């Protein structure tokens, strides 16, 4: 029996070693092929090519290791069957387990087939927001803004928000005080906006002053929008904010602090018991 | 065996290339047909035609690639069957996976059949809000206000809010101070509203002053509503807000700042220990 | 084979055209019948009649198009069966898909049968609030206050809130200051309420002063309720609010601003380190 | 074939008319029976009798219309069977649909059998709060405080809160200032509470002063509780609040405004850069 | 046929009357037995006995009425079977309905068997909090603090919080100002706590001063805990709060009001446009 | 028949009595065994032993009573079978009921087998937080801080947070004012921390000053962490807070009150209508 | 029979003892092997090795105890079968129970196979955030920042956030007042940032000043980002905050307190009743 175990162990070791080598070689080949074929006749979307490369590596890895596991398991098979009498229960359980796996793979297939997002896109999926790093057969990896890596099974991907397909809109709100002359401020901002596209090359169309977005309890809010290249709206917003602040300062338009009207009363006046006694 | 693999690879490549060409040709034909047939005898709703064009492209793409995949898989079939003994488990899992797919397709069919929304409508579906860009067989794409693209399977579409079917109502709230003469303010606003429909052509009916919507701790809120063309209420609201603010300024009606009555006390009076000791 | 496809295409086209014509004719007939039969012997509830008219149109449309789809599919049948070997998987998936459809139809049937709401009622169902525009076999449409249209499958309708069946109650809260004489204010409000039913014809019963609803940190809140015709409580509340504000102003009852008692301290007194050092 | 359709139509019409008449007659009989039998020998709980009357009407309506529908459907049967080949799918779907129906009926049965609430009780079930108007076989109707009608299937009724079975407790919180003499205030409130049961007949037991419920940042909160007849606690609370406010005013106990201690500093002292430079 | 119906009606009536009588007699017997057997040899936990008495009544009621219903149904059986052809659908639906019923009964059984709570215990289960009034076979009834009765099926009982098994801990937080001498305040509170157990007999162990629980922006919070008899912590907390407030007042320890440091600036200094122009 | 019932009753009574006696004897034996075997050769983890003792009692109780119930039921069997024809429905329902029971037991088994927590550990599981009192076969009991007992089925235990396995970290945040010299404060706190481990023996490693955790609108927050014995961090935090407050007071480092810069304006200046008129 | 029980007990004891010894020996061997093999030819990722060591121990423990349990159960088998007649119900229930177990194991397998996280990584999974301590076959253990241990089944692991794979980004926001010269402040911060990488070796790239992130009601917020080694961003942020505060103090750039503009009014002016009377 000990011989048997040793033999099985050896077999398992060999399978693992071989599988490891095959995976490495395959990955290398895939990378080379893709770096060469960029200028081939089929002219794949460059954005999609990167996705495909990552995916192919992933698929090959799974396929090879899957076969390795089957091989390893088959080496043990006889013992396992001996242990568990009720194989039906195991079959049922494995069936349910595989269900999730299949769901992940099918959804992953549609993500790539429908080109919902590619490697390098900036997306928001559930709680994950960031740049897609890898779309695998079973899981997707997204790298967040502050460096964290989100890993989730494809079956969890339902609502995708993709920021990299269309141009982004930078939205900047400016507060001005009630006392400001709205017409004059609008004129000033309009003038200011004219020069922006020259200054920021990420701005596609001339920015627009939408108008009085809201009148809060202490401020009038003016909204400006500017269409930019995808995901450039953060940088553009920051720029507009700074430039506009300086511009309005020069023109003497005040950005208001919160304001409150105070009415002073003497304590006698506000003490109910005093009044009641009168 | 290597020959076999090479042969399969070649076959797969060919299938992919042919499928790609067919899809492109079909898409081109669909677009041409639709751009021609606008003035045909059947007189489809123009709004719906755009939806149909996008959908047909989508359906053709799926159909062609679906056949291609079947073809590709059939090239591999023998190997797969050899690997997995328990095909029942796989069948079950695929059945469950297909279930979601079918659900998406059926819901998608009803969205189009019941004309819940068309390409170009402004809708809110779950967390996605924006203009519908494409209604596919399996997924719908909605482009948000700031440029992001929402992609979700049709099976997730349950509650649809469509803003493009009926006229919109612009709602503007104006705050006036407690000290204002409500009757006079109402008269002033009524006069102001009379001229609005001339100024903004998006306004359908003469706007209405609903009255005193609420009395908060420091303000009286008057509500104005104006029926506009679909999705024009944002622009109209902004316009009314600005014009009304200027109008009320001219007439001397104050928009109040938050107000607080302060009662001054000396520290001795408010120190409990001091009082207790007396 | 190309001939076959062309033939099938022709057949499909013909089916669609015929179905379209049948639906239009049927809708026209339904509308005529209902506009005539209002004074028939059966005396249906007028409110319900409108619902029935909309529903019948909906049912006829579905029935005709359903037959058309069956006809179209049967033209394709042979090819589909040829493609998919495992028809069991498809059957299962379609069964699950149909399940939702049936659930929608059954719930829709009960909504109409139990008269939970009719076309024209003001309802709140889930997140949708507004006037019912159409109750279909599968979906219900509700038009919101600001013009948006909510569309949801009947299967999602569980908790219905219907505002159009019973009279509504207008609830108006008035804040008075701590220093006010509550008894006098109550007397004043009582007098004020006596004249209301004459002024607003939507008020059914004489309004009631419930009393001191709450004593917050700076105000005493008095609550008034008035029973009005269904959905007239918004308008009535606005009217009462304005009239009462003017009335209390005349009588010299103050609506209080938020109030705060300030205790002044010199910095030395409040610097812990200074004290500690002593 | 047209004859056939006409015949079926006639048959359906007749079934509907007969069913309508039967339902009306049955309802009338039920109402008469119940108005007579109040003094019968079985002495049903009067509260429950009203529930039963409503329920019986509901059951009869369902039963009659159910038979009518079966009759109507049987008139169509041959055509339907002809259309749909796969009756198994339909059977499955109807089975699932009926499941919800049965669940509603079973839960409804237990609501009445266990007397969880009766018509006229004030209850809170899920988001619905108000007076029960009707307990049907499938749905329950609750009328809310402001006139809206909540309609929900009995299957949604899980957690019931019934306010009409036991006496209610009115809870009144009074704020007094830190500077007040707690012992004296407690004595005063105790005296005040003694007279309450005479004044408000809905109060069952002498109200109780629980004591210092909480000490917040600016107030001491004293809590009073009074047991009242079911659902009379709102009215009683309002009364106690008003009376107690007047009483404390007379006795010179202050209800405190929010309070804040202000420490004045000169700008130089608080500018970090100035200090840092020193 | 009418004879048949009359006969069935009579039969049903008789069954109901007999069942009603049996239930009443059984309940009476149960109550007598339990009031007698308190001093029997088996010495059941007195707390559990009350639960058992209520439960037994409940079980007997169900059992008798269940048999009655079976009897009534069997009188109708022949007609029902005649109406519905597909009995399988009904069976399935009833099976699912019964599933919930069985789940409720099983969970109810474990609640009593594991003695999770008994009649009279103060518990929190889901949203219900109050004293347990009845544990039935299918539902549990809990009476809330303000008199409302919570009724929920036992199947909903998962997380139980029982307050009546162990002693409760009264937690009292005291705020003192930054300027206070913490060491002295701790000494004072320690002295104060020594006398408490004599004053409040519900306190089991000498209360403890935990120390400085938190330092908020304007206060230092000291925490005191006192172990009391079950559910006596509310009353004890109220007492400690009042006594401690008086004690600290006597000793001159200030309970601080919220505090804010104000820095005054002239408008010129804070107007950015003015500065920018310089 | 009455004889039969009496006989069954007697049998049931006997079974209950015998089962009660067996359970008591078994519990006694278990306690004795465990109090003896602490010094046995197997050297179980002492923490685990207590868990095992409680569990064994629980298992024995269940096993005995389970057999008793089977015995009691078998006495009734014949009657029950007679009543219910469709035993299949009952079987299905019991199967589903047992499913939950089995899930609870399996999860309970893994809790103990994987040693996720033991009796006496301080844990947070779902909404329950406190000391584990008993881990049973089906339910777990946790005693909360204020004396309440949480009882929940093991199947609800998914995410366990165990505070008793590793050392705890006490986290203390100190606010200092903008005007403070950060470098000096850091030096002072460092000196202060050096003496702490001697003062509090629960501190394992010398505490650490992490640095400037945050700069809020009015304060600089410095964070200190100290590793303590498990669950000693509450006590240690309280101690550090008090000592540090006194230390900083001595050294003249101010803990700042909230601060606000006030800019005074005259009413004329801030009234928009006045300005607009100019 | 007693003999039989004794014999079974002995057998069970022996099985447990043997299993315990085997597990200990196996664990020892695994540890030794791994500490030796670090420099073997296969060159596993060092990070993964630690995970493997822990996992192998876990797997061996399970495997051994699983066999032991099977052995123990088989000793009891005959009795159990005798007790429960309906073994089908048990089988079903065990099947469902095992389903969860299998799901946990499969997910656990993919976590390790896809290298989602390893022992020592800092991750956030659901509500658990901390350092991974152990990845077992069924459960994962994560040690939180303050010392608590999170234990959850692998089946609950869906969305993983791994902070240890990529570099982290430290984000520091600085508030400056409206009155500041933005251009100058930007210049100052830029100069400040140049020296940072030398000071903090965890900073990988020169930090960046993103610009004006936001303009709130009283402050301008400037954002700085710095790429650091994984999980070093907390320490780096703290350092930057302190250094920058000192630097800006030196340069005379003010960090603003919240600001409010106060408008003083006399009570007469703000009392509506007074005005109304005029």
TrEMBL record, chains A, B, C, D, E, F, G:
<dbReference type="Pfam" id="PF21088">
    <property type="entry name" value="MS_channel_1st"/>
</dbReference>
<comment type="similarity">
    <text>Belongs to the MscS (TC 1.A.23) family.</text>
</comment>
<dbReference type="InterPro" id="IPR006685">
    <property type="entry name" value="MscS_channel_2nd"/>
</dbReference>
<dbReference type="InterPro" id="IPR045276">
    <property type="entry name" value="YbiO_bact"/>
</dbReference>
<keyword id="KW-1133">Transmembrane helix</keyword>
<dbReference type="InterPro" id="IPR010920">
    <property type="entry name" value="LSM_dom_sf"/>
</dbReference>
<feature type="transmembrane region" description="Helical">
    <location>
        <begin position="82"/>
        <end position="102"/>
    </location>
</feature>
<keyword id="KW-1003">Cell membrane</keyword>
<comment type="function">
    <text>May play a role in resistance to osmotic downshock.</text>
</comment>
<feature type="domain" description="Mechanosensitive ion channel MscS">
    <location>
        <begin position="100"/>
        <end position="164"/>
    </location>
</feature>
<dbReference type="InterPro" id="IPR023408">
    <property type="entry name" value="MscS_beta-dom_sf"/>
</dbReference>
<feature type="transmembrane region" description="Helical">
    <location>
        <begin position="55"/>
        <end position="76"/>
    </location>
</feature>
<feature type="domain" description="Mechanosensitive ion channel MscS C-terminal">
    <location>
        <begin position="171"/>
        <end position="255"/>
    </location>
</feature>
<feature type="transmembrane region" description="Helical">
    <location>
        <begin position="6"/>
        <end position="26"/>
    </location>
</feature>
<dbReference type="InterPro" id="IPR011066">
    <property type="entry name" value="MscS_channel_C_sf"/>
</dbReference>
<keyword id="KW-0472">Membrane</keyword>
<dbReference type="GO" id="GO:0008381">
    <property type="term" value="F:mechanosensitive monoatomic ion channel activity"/>
</dbReference>
<dbReference type="InterPro" id="IPR011014">
    <property type="entry name" value="MscS_channel_TM-2"/>
</dbReference>
<keyword id="KW-0812">Transmembrane</keyword>
<dbReference type="Pfam" id="PF00924">
    <property type="entry name" value="MS_channel_2nd"/>
</dbReference>
<dbReference type="InterPro" id="IPR049278">
    <property type="entry name" value="MS_channel_C"/>
</dbReference>
<feature type="domain" description="Mechanosensitive ion channel transmembrane helices 2/3">
    <location>
        <begin position="58"/>
        <end position="99"/>
    </location>
</feature>
<protein>
    <submittedName>
        <fullName>Mechanosensitive ion channel family protein</fullName>
    </submittedName>
</protein>
<dbReference type="GO" id="GO:0005886">
    <property type="term" value="C:plasma membrane"/>
</dbReference>
<dbReference type="InterPro" id="IPR049142">
    <property type="entry name" value="MS_channel_1st"/>
</dbReference>
<dbReference type="Pfam" id="PF21082">
    <property type="entry name" value="MS_channel_3rd"/>
</dbReference>
């Amino acid at each position: 029996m000990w011989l048997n175990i040793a033999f099985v162990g050896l077999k398992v070791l060999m399978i693992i070693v071989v599988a490891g080598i095959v995976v490495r070689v395959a990955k290398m080949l895939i990378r080379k092929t893709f770096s060469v074929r960029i200028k081939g006749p089929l002219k794949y979307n460059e954005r999609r090519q990167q996705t495909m490369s990552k995916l192919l590596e992933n698929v090959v890895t799974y396929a090879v290791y899957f076969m390795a596991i089957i091989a390893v398991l088959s080496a043990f098979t006889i013992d396992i069957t001996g242990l568990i009498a009720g194989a039906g229960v195991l079959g049922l359980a494995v069936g349910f387990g595989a269900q999730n796996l299949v769901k992940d793979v099918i959804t992953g297939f549609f993500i790539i087939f429908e080109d919902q997002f590619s490697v390098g896109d900036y997306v928001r999926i559930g709680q994950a927001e960031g740049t897609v790093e890898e779309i695998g057969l079973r899981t997707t990896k997204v790298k967040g803004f502050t460096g964290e890596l989100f890993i989730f099974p494809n079956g969890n991907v339902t609502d995708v928000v993709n920021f990299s397909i269309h141009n982004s809109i930078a939205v900047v709100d400016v507060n001005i005080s009630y006392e400001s002359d709205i017409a004059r401020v609008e004129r000033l901002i309009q003038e200011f906006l004219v020069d922006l596209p020259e200054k920021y090359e990420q701005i596609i169309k001339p920015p627009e002053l939408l108008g009085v977005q809201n009148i809060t309890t202490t401020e009038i809010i003016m909204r400006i929008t500017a269409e930019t290249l995808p995901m450039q709206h953060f940088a553009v917003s920051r720029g507009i904010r700074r430039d506009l602040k300086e511009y309005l300062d020069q023109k003497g338009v005040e950005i208001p602090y919160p304001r409150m009207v105070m009415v002073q009363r003497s304590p006698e006046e506000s003490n109910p018991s005093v009044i009641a006694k009168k």
